[in-house]
Sequence to fold (270 residues):
Amino acid sequence: MNSFYEQRPEGLFIGGMTDYPVAAHVHTMAEVLVITRGFADLTIDEVQYHLTPGDAAVIFPLVPHSFDRLSEDSKGVIAIFPPDVIPEYAGTFHGLQPENPKLPAEKSSLDQRFAVERLGVLNMDENLPMCVAYLHVLLACVLHSLTYRPVYDYSERDLGHRIISYISEHAFEEITLESASHALGISASHLSHFFSERMHTNFRRFINAIRIEKARLLMRDPNLTLTDICDACGYTNMRTFRRAFQQEIGCLPSDHLLSLRNRVAGNREE
Fold:
């Protein structure tokens, strides 16, 4: 499972679950979700889980995960948040890993179901304090119902955060395995091992995934050409950009751009 780093623009999100598949990715946030309708198939750290109404799942920071398949009527509540947004649980997210990140519906409590119901109707922008309060309730119910194993190598976890932070900050510059390892003060082999063992991908593929994800976002701007997007995403020439885009998305950037803008034009006509 190849993973890309998702650089989230907001520091906290509490709202509706995605209604479309999301490729394997990691971020430094923690994540909790509860299905309220339909079903969702998620892969968390290379294990697939089938979630139906009432099922919850928790995803710890830097754990690769994806939304593989969702029913057409799928609906749910999701929170993506810094691990220390509620201080009582910071130690859990930093020092433990769940034996099983899924909490079945039959193990949910009345308080959990009430918190999910309230989070399903509250708007985070208008009711942030209440949303965080109900998130606290939801985490209290879910986290205390799971079993954990300790993370013994704290230094490796801290290094993981340093690596991801550095790569996400410099992904659009000229960057190589050697230059990144030198900047991080570790060997190139150690850095390569981190990506293969923890992120289940390689260094160059990880960089390309970040760049292509940005390229797809920039394609929404009608004022930008493919050359502009190629330059903004750190590619030195269009040939390399096309090859990387096709490897990640399965089509040429020009085809993807045309499809995207045709959909936008169709929506405007409607």
User: Anything to note?
Assistant: The chain has two domains: 4-150, 154-269. The radius of gyration is 20 Å.
